[in-house]
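user: can you give me the structure for this one chain? C-alpha cells are fine.
assistant: on it. calling the predictor now.
[tool input]
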Amino acid sequence: MTETAKTPVDFWFDPLCPWAWMTSRWMLEVEKVRPVEVRWHVMSLAVLNEPKMDELPEEYRELLTTAWGPVRVCIAAEQKHGSEVLGRLYTALGTRFHNQGLEKNRETIVAALEEAGLPAELADYADSDAYDTELRASHKEGIEMVGQDVGTPVIAVPGADGEQVAFFGPVVTPAPKGEDAAKLWDGTLLVASIPGFYEIKRTRTVGPIFD
C-alpha cells in the first residue's frame, strides 16, 4: 500500500485533554490495521473557552491557565520543524501527562522534546505568544468544521463524496486495539458517509483508562 493510497485523517488535539489522548491512541492503532494516515494539528482548550471564562468553575479556569504552555510548544515545534514532528511530540507529552501523571511543567516538556528529537529550547515558547496567531488559525480550522459547542478531539475523515466530514470524538475508553479499533474506524467512515448525520451520544460513566 503506497502512501498516496492511504486514507487521510486530520486530527486536532490539545495535549492536556485526556479524552483527546484516548482517541489519538485509538487512531495510532487504526494506522496498524487499516490503510490510514493521521495528519496532526493543534487546537486549544484555552482559546476555545476564552469567550466563557467568567462562566466556568474556578478549578477549570485554573486548569486552562496551564493549558497555554504545552500547546504553544507544539505549535512552535510545528512552525520551526514541520507538521511531521507533531505526532511524536504529542505522544511524548501525552504519555508523561496522562499515563505517567507528571507535572505539566518545563521539566516534563523538555523531557518530551528530547524524546521527540526536538531542541529543548522549544520549551521557552510555553511562556511566549510568538506563534499565537498560528495557534489560533490552526484551532479555527478544526473547530469551524464542527462548531463551537464541542471540544477536543476533532477528527475529519472522507465522506461519501470525498469531501471531509468532521466530528468531535469518538470519545472512548480505553482506546480500542486490534480488530476493535478497526471496527470503530469502519463505523466512523460509515456514519460519515450518511448526509445529515450529526451525533450519537450517551452519558459517560467511566473516566479515561490509560493502558
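assistant: here you go. Helices lie at 18-33, 45-49, 58-81, 86-99, 106-115, 132-146, 178-192. The first helix runs from residue 18 to 33.
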